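Could you please consider the sequence and fold appended to this message?
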Amino acid sequence: MKAMLGILAGIALLATAAQGMAAVDHAEFVKGPFKSGIEVTKVCLECHDQQAADFMKTTHWTWAGTPNMVKGMEKSTKKYGKSNMINSFCTSIQGGKDGVVHESCGKCHAGYGWTRTDFDFTDKGKVDCLICHAQKGNYTRATVGCDIDKKSIDKKAMDLNVAAQSVGLPTRKNCGACHFFGGGGDAVKNAGLDSTLEKTKKSQDVHMGSKESGGQDMACQSCHVTKNHKIGGASSMMAHYDTRVNCEQCHSGAKAPHQKAKNGALINRHLATVACQTCHIPFFAKGQATKMAWKWSDVGKNITAEEQFDKETYAKHKGTFVWGMNVKPVYAWNNGLVERYMVGDKVKDPTKEVVMMRPVGDIKDQKSKIYPYKLYKGDQPMDAKYKNLIIFQQYKSLWVDYDWDKACRLGAEGTGLPYSGKYQFVNTVAYIAAQHEVAPKEEALQCGECHMGGSRLDWKALGYKGDPMQKGGRFGKAQKVAKK
C-alpha cells in the first residue's frame, strides 16, 4: 500500500511541476492519525527522501557553515554559525553542561530533539517538515524561555493530521515562525522583520504588501531564491552564506530602475556608491517597534519602568531594553564582508564598545557601497582576567535565580572557555543590516535629504570632505560632474 501511495504521489508531483508548481493536495497521500511530528516526517520520507537529504546539507539544519563572510576567515574550513557563535541578544546556545540551553534556543531549529549537544544530525527522521510547509492545523513548535510563548502562539488546538495534509510551498508565516521572532521575541533582532509582515500593506513593504493595497504579496523565496533547500541570503549577523540576495535579481535589464524617472541618469550614477536599500528603506520598524538596546547588567534588579510602544522596557530575568519605531538607519560602507566578534576573542580595551559585528569597507574601497543599518547597543559580561566575553547559562539558571557568578560558571561547562571567577560588564555594539520594509517609490529618499544641506548622511563620517555635490565624489568622473 505504501508503495502504491508513493507511485501516486510521484505522478501527482510530476503533474504539479507541469502546472508551474501549483499546490498538491496531500490529503490523498498522507493519512493519520499522527501523535507526533516525527510520525509525520516518517510518512514524508516515503516520497521525499532526497529532499530531506538536501535539507540536511543546509545551514538551516546544521546551524553552521564556512565563515566566507567574515574578514580574515574567508578561507577557513572550520564551521561557524548559531551553534557556536555569540551575539548580543540571548547570546549563545552553548551555555551549560551538555548544552542544556539547546532546550530553549533549539526550539527554532527545523528538527526534532536538539535539546543537547549530542544531537544526531545524520538522522533524516528528525527533520521537521511541517514548520516550513504546513499551511493549516495551527502547527507550532513549542518554545521555552522566550517571549514567543506569550505573544506569538495561537491558542487554538494544534491538529497534526490537518497540518500534515496541508503542506505546500512555504509562506511568509512559515518563515516568520522563526525569523520574525529572532532574539527571543517578536521584532527583537532584525531591522524591519517582524510578524506585522505576515499580512501587510504596500506602505510598509512594496514586495510583501497585499495586492489589494498595491503591493506584490511576494513569498520570502521570491527574493531568497532556493535550490535544493539551500536558501539564498547573507545575514550580517552570521558568518556564512550560500548565495546572496540582491535587488538586481529582478531590477535589471528591461526592468532596470529609474528608467521613467525625470532625473534617472543622475540617480543611476549613485549606483556605484549607494546601495538600493539606502534610498528605498528610509525607515525601518514601521509595523511595530524593534529592540534597539539591551542592558544585561540590570538583571535581578528591582526596576520599575514604563513601556515604550506597548513593549516592556524591563524584565527582571533579562534586564533593560530600549525600543524604536519608524527608525532612521545609520549608514556605513560595506564590500560584502563583516568584522565579527568570535567566541574566545580577547577584548583589547574594556572601556570601549566591543564590536559584535560591523560591515567592512570604506570610501577608498571601490567594491564598497553605502548601506543602511540598525545600530544595536547593549552590555554583556566579560571575564575580568581572561578578557573574553562570557557565554553564560541563561536558561534554567540566570533567568531563574539572577545569579551572575553561577550563570558564568555553568556557562563555561558548555563552552570549554575558562572562567576566572570574576566578571565585569562591557558595552557592545552591532550593525544589523536593514533589508526589509522597502518603501513605495514615492517615499524613497529625495535629493535634498542628503544633499544641499540635508542631514540624512554624515558625509565626513563616511570619508568625504563634505557634500559630494559641492566637494566632489569618490570617483574622478563624479567629481568632474559635480564641478560643472
